[in-house]
């Protein structure tokens, strides 16, 4: 049994039974048994069922958002938006379900050759604690749309809304007379996730989480030849040039590192500003950070809530301490809530550092908290060099009024996503993922078909030859 606490006050809000070995085995057996029945459901009907799931998700959006705020500490505006995005994810893949198209290939000779997209079977999705409801939808919806069955393991710290999503999906499928094993949500800790990935009944693993777990997940899946997609962390730079709209850039930079209390893989945690506007831009950012209101996210006017877990709050505080010890300068820091009822919440102060030593952990490690490191650059070449001073490659922001420069940098930056004169804009229509220590594989958009299905090639002889007749030489055959 896991005690789930709210980060706002630290008090328990739920008791969630852990999935033991017997329950895990039964869940995988049910998933494997249901895979054939779900695969045989016509794609258009699968799509209609997902759209019905989305309708029910929207009907419960306020309830889910309120619970997500309590469980993660995010402001209601954020959790309501995430609830809407989760429903939209099911709508998108509901419409995509019957569009996983094969191809006809004009090979030489009397042959009709084509490809089919085939579902893997049992897909295990593992999601982190920072965006639990939307990430659960992002794993389940495309898996089901393309004919797979889904087993989802939410984070032990924030399982509550994923469990609700599992109940919504299960209800729709049950009313359609379909087996219960098609979609299952299994709460538990890291041991459960490791066992699910290592089980030979798992055909595909789709993992979102930290760099610390990626190698183990990939190795466990590879041991039984199951492909895995790993969407990991980032240390994303925002490059601000002197010719940019500096007010818009300041707003985006703020949102890019204090949004969700910094608990975003795409957090723009490294700020690079052209030298001639560096003092002015940092002065404005410092003013905004010092004015931030940190506190109970359910209260009007509060902009930043707590960190979602006690362990993460302590990790962020440790980074703040070691950064100062390494010689980094605190340019600005927000205050923390003083209300007695919030004293046991998991609070950290949004902080901007300057003059950070090049070898400091502040610049190299993903902090996953509201911490920004700023440094100046002289020109485009230096900006690129500083941007690439990391093993991560998830995202980057470019702020400039020069269209040619924007395209040059978009091409040159070795990251999975580049935002130009905007930041943190996401859509299920667009592929997402990283390179380097940010992982591999892509979710979303047309890439989702390639992730959740595999390609089968079919060759048909159209000449009507008997089986014992020799096949003519084919110029494509070596």
Structure explained in plain terms:
With 478 residues, this protein is of the alpha/beta class. It folds into 2 domains: 2-232 and 438-458, Aldehyde Dehydrogenase, Chain A, domain 1 (3-Layer(aba) Sandwich), CATH 3.40.605; 237-420, 3-Layer(aba) Sandwich (Aldehyde Dehydrogenase, Chain A, domain 2). The protein is built from 15 helices and 20 strands. It has helices at residues 21-40, 43-59, 61-72, 76-96, 132-145, 160-175, 190-198, 211-222, 246-258, 278-290, 310-325, 361-364, 380-387, 403-412, 447-452, and strands spanning 2-5, 12-16, 104-105, 111-119, 122-126, 149-153, 183-185, 204-208, 228-231, 237-240, 270-274, 329-333, 351-354, 371-377, 392-393, 395-399, 417-420, 435-436, 439-440, 453-461. The strands form 5 sheets. Strands 12-13-14-11-10-16-17 form a 7-stranded mixed beta sheet, with helices on both faces. α2 packs antiparallel against α4 (76-96).
Query: Based on DSSP secondary structure assignment, what is the total number of beta strands?
Result: 20
Percent in helix: 25-40%
CATH architecture of the largest domain: 3-Layer(aba) Sandwich
N-to-C span:
61 Å
CATH superfamily of the largest domain: Aldehyde Dehydrogenase, Chain A, domain 1
CATH top level assignment of the largest domain: Alpha Beta
The chain-level mean pLDDT equals 95
How many structural domains in the coordinates?
A: 2
Say what the CATH topology of the largest domain is: Aldehyde Dehydrogenase, Chain A, domain 1
- Largest sheet at a glance? 7 strands, mixed
Number of helices: 15
Could you list the spans in which at least 5 consecutive residues all have pLDDT below 50? none
| Physical arrangement of strands within the biggest beta sheet | 12-13-14-11-10-16-17
Tell me the overall shape. globular
DSSP strand (E) fraction? Answer: 15-25%
Helix and strand content put the structural class at: alpha/beta
Backbone CA Rg: 24 Å
């Amino acid at each position: 049994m896991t005690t789930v606490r709210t980060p706002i006050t630290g008090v328990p809000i739920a008791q969630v039974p852990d999935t033991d070995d017997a329950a895990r085995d039964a869940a995988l057996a049910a998933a494997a048994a249901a895979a054939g029945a779900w695969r045989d459901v016509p794609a258009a009907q699968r799509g209609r069922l997902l759209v019905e799931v989305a309708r029910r998700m929207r009907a419960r959006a306020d309830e889910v958002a309120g619970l997500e705020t309590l469980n993660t500490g995010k402001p209601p505006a954020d959790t309501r938006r995430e609830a809407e995005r989760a429903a939209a994810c099911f709508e998108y893949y509901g419409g995509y379900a019957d569009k996983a198209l094969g191809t006809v290939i004009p090979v030489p000779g009397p042959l009709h050759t084509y490809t089919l997209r085939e579902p893997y079977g049992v897909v295990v999705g593992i999601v982190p604690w920072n965006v639990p409801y939307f990430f659960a939808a992002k794993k389940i919806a495309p898996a089901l749309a393309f004919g797979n069955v889904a087993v989802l393991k939410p984070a032990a710290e924030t399982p509550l809304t994923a469990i609700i999503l599992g109940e919504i999906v299960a209800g729709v499928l049950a009313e359609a007379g379909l087996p219960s094993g098609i979609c299952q949500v299994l709460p538990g800790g890291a041991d459960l996730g490791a066992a699910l990935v290592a089980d030979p009944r798992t055909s595909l693993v789709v993992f979102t989480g930290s760099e610390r777990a990626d190698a183990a997940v990939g190795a466990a899946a590879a041991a039984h030849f199951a492909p895995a997609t790993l969407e990991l962390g980032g240390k994303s730079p925002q490059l601000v040039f002197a010719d940019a709209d500096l007010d818009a850039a300041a707003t985006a930079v703020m949102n890019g590192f204090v949004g969700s209390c910094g608990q975003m893989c795409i957090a723009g945690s490294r700020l690079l500003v052209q030298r001639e506007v560096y003092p002015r831009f940092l002065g404005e950012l410092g003013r905004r950070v010092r004015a931030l209101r940190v506190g109970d996210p359910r209260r009007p006017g509060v902009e930043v809530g707590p960190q979602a877990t006690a362990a993460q709050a302590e990790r962020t505080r440790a980074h703040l301490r070691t950064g100062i010890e390494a010689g980094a300068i605190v340019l600005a820091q927000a205050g923390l809530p003083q209300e007695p009822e919030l004293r046991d919440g998991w609070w950290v102060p949004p902080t901007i550092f300057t003059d950070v030593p090049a070898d400091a952990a502040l610049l190299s490690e993903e902090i996953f908290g509201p911490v920004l490191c700023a440094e100046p650059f002289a020109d485009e070449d230096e900006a690129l060099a500083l941007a690439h001073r990391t093993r991560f490659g998830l995202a980057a922001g470019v702020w400039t009024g020069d269209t040619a420069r924007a395209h040059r940098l978009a091409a040159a930056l070795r990251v999975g996503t580049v935002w130009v004169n905007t930041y943190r804009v996401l859509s299920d229509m667009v592929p997402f993922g990283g390179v380097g220590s940010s992982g591999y594989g892509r979710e979303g958009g047309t890439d989702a078909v390639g992730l959740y299905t595999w390609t089968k090639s079919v060759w048909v002889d159209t000449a009507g030859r008997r089986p014992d007749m020799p096949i003519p030489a084919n110029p494509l055959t070596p």
